[in-house]
Amino acid sequence: MFSLIQDRRGRFSSLRAITLAILVVPGLRLGVLWAMGDLGGRPVREVTHGTGDFAVYFLLASLAITPFRTVLDWQRLVPLRRMIGVAAASYAGIHLMLYVIDQRYDLIKVATEIALRFYLTIGFVTFLGLLALAITSTDGWMKRLGRRWKTLHKLAYPLAALALFHYFLQSKADVTAAVFVAGLFLWEMIWRLTSRASRLHWWPLPLIAIGAAVATAAVEALWYGLATRIDPIKVLSANLDLSYGPRPAVWILICALGLSAIAAVTRWRQSRVSQTTDKRRAVLL
Ligand code: HEM
User: Are 34 and 27 in contact (CB under 8 A)?
Assistant: First the structure.
C-alpha cells in the first residue's frame, strides 16, 4: 500500500498520494452512504451504477494521460497511468460483485443473464479484458512480454469503446451522461489520429475540440435515430438551442476549448522562459 505513494526511487510522491485519494474516495463515499442507509430503496442498484460510472471515468482518465502529458507538457503524469488503469479494473470488479449480490448470489442466474442479455455480455467481455490488462500491468509482466506488452495494452482503446457501448445500452431512454463520456473518448481518439509533429503544438487543439464536438453530436443523433423513434435532425438541432441548458456536444466543445487555452498559455510561458535563458546565455558569452 505504502509503495503506491512512493516514486520509483522510494521517495514520497504527493502527486501519487493525491491520485490515490481521488481513486479511492468515490468508492469510500458510496460505501459510507450505503452503510448510513442514504441510498434509497435499492442501495445495491445505486452502488452498481456508481461503481460502473467510476470504472468508465478512470478507464478514460488512464487513456487521457498520454494526450495530457503532451498537451500540458507534464511528464510526471506518466507513472500514474498504471495506478489509474488498475483502479478502473477494480471498480469494474466491484461492479460485477454487486451485480452478483443483487442476484442474491445465484451464480447460475448471473451466468445465464450474462449469456442472454447483450449489454451484460458486452460488460463481461470488457471486464475480462480489463482484468487481463490489470494483471499484466506489473514490471515483471512487462519484461516477460517484451514488445508484445505494448500491443496487448493497446487493447485498452477497444475496451473503452466496449465499456461505453455497455453504458449506452443500459441507459434506456436518456443517454445524455453516456454521450458526454463518449465525447471525451472521441476527443482522445481524434487527438491520437493527428500527426505526431502537430501534437507538439497547441494550435491543432481548437480544431480537435470542434471535431470532437461534431462527432459527439453525430453519435447522439445516431443513437436516438437507431435506438428510439426520435428524429435525429431534431436531436442535432437541439445542440443549437441552449434554453434547456447545453447538450453534451456543447459541453465537450467548452471543455476541449478550455484545454486548448491552457495548452496555449503553457506553450507561451515555455517560449518566454527559453527566450530569457537564451538572452542570459548571450550576455554571459
Ligand atoms: C462484469 C460484467 C458486468 C456486469 C454484470 C454489469 C452489470 C451492470 C448492471 C446490472 C448495470 C445497471 C443496469 C440497470 O440499472 O438497468 C450496469 C450499469 C453500468 N455499467 Fe456495468 N456491468 C459489467 C461490466 C461493466 C464494466 C467493465 C464497465 C466499465 C468499465 C461497466 C460500466 C457500467 C456503467 C457506466 C453503467 C451505468 C451506470 C449509470 O447509469 O450511472 N460495467 N452494469
Answer: no
Asked if residue 99 has its Cβ within 6 Å of ligand 1, the reply is: yes
User: How many angstroms from the chain centroid is the CA of residue 197?
Assistant: 25
Confidence of residue 272 (pLDDT cuts 50, 70, 90): confident
What band does 2 get if pLDDT is binned at 50, 70 and 90?
low
48 ligand 1 Cβ < 6 A: yes
Q: How many Å lie between the centroid of ligand 1 and the Cα of residue 128?
A: 13
The pLDDT of residue 253 is 97
Look up the pTM and report it: 0.93
Q: Is the pLDDT of residue 1 over 70?
A: no
For residue 92, report the distance from its CA to the centre of ligand 1, in Å. 8
How many C-beta atoms surround the C-beta of residue 264 within 10 A? 15
How many A from CA of 49 to the centre of ligand 1? 6
Question: Which of 164, 166, 174, 175, when mutated, tests ligand 1's pocket best, judged by the most ligand atoms within 8 Å of its CB?
Answer: 166
Name which residue sits closest to atom 27 of ligand 1, judged by CA.
127
Can you tell me which atom of ligand 1 is nearest the CA of 88? Answer: 30
DSSP readout, 101-170? Answer: HHTTT-HHHHHHHHHH-HHHHHHHHHHHHHHHHHHTTSHHHHHHHTHHHHHHHTTHHHHHHHHHHHHHHH
* Tens digits of residue pLDDT in 79-131: 899 999 999 999 999 999 999 999 999 999 999 999 999 999 999 999 999 99
